[in-house]
Amino acid sequence: MAAGALIAPQAIAQTVAPKPVNERAGTDAVGIGDIIVTAQKRSERLSDVPLSVAAATGPQLVKAGVVTAADLGKIVTGFTYQPSNYGPPVFSLRGIGFFDNTLAASPTVSVYVDQIPLPYLAMVGGATLDLERVEVLKGPQGTLFGQNATGGAINFIAAKPTAALSAGGSLEYARFGQFNAEGYISGSLSGTLQARLSGRTEQGGAWQRSTTRPGDKLGDRDFTTGRLLLDWDPSSAVHLELSVNGWVDKSETQAAQYLAYAATVPPPIGGTAQAAPIQAEPVPGENPRLANWDADTNLRRDSSFYQFALTGQFDLSDSVTMNTITAYSHLKEFSPYDADGTSFQNMYDTVIGKIDTFNQEVRFSGKLLNDKLSWMLGGNYAYSNSVDHSFLDFIASNAGVGPFRYTHIVNIDDVVSNAYAVFGGLDYKLTETLLAQVSARYTDQKQKGSGCLADGGNGTIATAFSVLSTAPFSAGQCVTFANTNPTDFPPFTPLGGLVHKTLSENNTSWRVNLSWKPNSDVHLYVNVTKGYKSGSFPRLPDVFQSIYAPVPQESVLAYETGFKVSALNRTLDLSGAVFYYDYKDKQILGYLQVPLFGNLPALVTIPKSHVTGGELNANWRPVSGLTINGGVTYVDAKVNHDLANAALYNTRDPNGQSINIQGYRFPITARWQASGGIDYGFPVSESLTADFGANLTYRSSTPATFGGGSQYILPAYTLVDLRAGIGSENARWHLQVWGRNIFNKFYLTNAAHVIDTITRTTGRPATYGATLSFKY
Q1: 512 φ, ψ to 5°?
Q2: Are residues 574 and 631 in contact, defined by beta-carbon separation less than 8 angstroms?
Q3: CA dist 281 to 275, 467, 629, 713, Å?
């Protein structure tokens, strides 16, 4: 089986997938190399899907070292994972991502497990547990997967309960003392009820070292996740599956590397107490393990997540099926971050919050006109209630009003959202080889946000802001002013509580596709898609109530044409696509000047921007047991030149300088991404088999921000992984030794200006270990 770095359509697996609920495959025979996927919310061959889709089986993910969703870049070119300085991670596909530090930031790449939504990326920690496969859909997917999928969608397919009793697991030990264990048990509880229980724990592995305190380490994993699946078939026409899953994360958050001192508010206005101790900090060289954080500080998270979901498939007649998805999710977040890269408390941020979500989807599908016409019609309701409080402890240049300095503040950003959607699609066979598809989705969403800048309880910012106010503030109180014009002169009028704002938006996503299959080995397609991402309430210090302002929804009009071809007796699979995205009001991370607090990272809206690109994938099985694959993606993502509206493109770089970003590249968007892999397995005796493999991943250089200079450039890098294993011929056990980033390549995943320091975030150093897997 292939475990390479890029998975080409058709060649990802050599067996037909089982029949999961909502995704049960048809009975038509398929050729060697086919896989059944549900990219369009129905079972079909991957080679028949008129979209760019990467798919990988569970065993392939394990071999390639895909432990978390962040590792998907090893097998999916065009996918990028980026950690944020103090908030959820960012997933991007083809250069389209959404970087915001708020806990309930709606992504541009949506994530699902068995089509059950994980609406926010802070929830995805346990998604890769015990998988049958993963499907990654590139390009806007809003008609079927909702408005927050302008970059694409990722659907993890969990391994399903089995009729026969089976069990298995793995034990893994790796560099830095990390130990991982995983296991499952599956079988029948009755003639109609089957169950599968799985779990995984990851412990240890502190890999970062303090630059000033020998022996002080950081980076331990303490993560445990589990899932219970119950499949019930009360009749041949009804299939129900209950999923109860969750995780607990007490891992340590990563510290940044310090590069330089850069006061956000320089003297004489800004404070100076932080200058000398920060400037005395050592600057790490190209050693990924070196970083720094405050001494005697606990950087362990205390976060947890659980979800209850019930999916159903009801065969209403021979030609009509109803599918339902009902899900409730709860996230509790406690995450401390020391993002300034120093041992001085320039900024220590603790995010405390929670998110409750409820999702309900009902859809009907069927066929008409002697199966020439396939149709789908459905509705969806999504509710979320997020509480997001950011507690900042800091001694910084921007933490004061003249001589009145403050050390503890709270940024409050609570949002309640209700979204209603209806969607439908038609597929019509114009001829035996030509297929036309149209689909659309109408969404109506109302978000109610409540936020303010509050005193952290020690009264320091209450005292400082009282100097500017017509009435004094008390410790622990919201200190936001009622004024809407930041250019007003003090004294200002206190608001007296939270700022309340409402964002009501609606949109219609759609897709038109034409697909031509002259034979079973050639597929050509072209599609045009309109997609949307919902608006957002950014989290900033709300000095004035006008600062707490939502960013409106973005839209994209995407054009794509592609091909999927099998050749050489179906041992070689080729696929490719070219695409162009035309964006309006793109939400992207920039910098804004916030009164009193200076230049801070913030969401900015770009009126017009575009993405031009292409991709080419290949998977070759020249002889039995050998698979070679590779792929390359080119993405040119830029802000448009819009001379008639030049002033709308004015913003600031991370150093606080005013810039006009017309023609600038999108941050964290490498022009070139490439990956490749080889996997070879062969028998060594009647009872033993051996295998070896390698993966290579390449990313070209990219700016981390709009402007700012060379300190904010992420250099190009190439990572190489190797593995070798031996196991029983019947696959009952397998022992693998592996190395990841074996050449210990120094590479960066982010760079930023955080309060008074310029910092960078490093990728992991060389890691090696051994994994023993077994099943019965």
Answers
A1: -125, 130
A2: no
A3: 10, 34, 46, 22
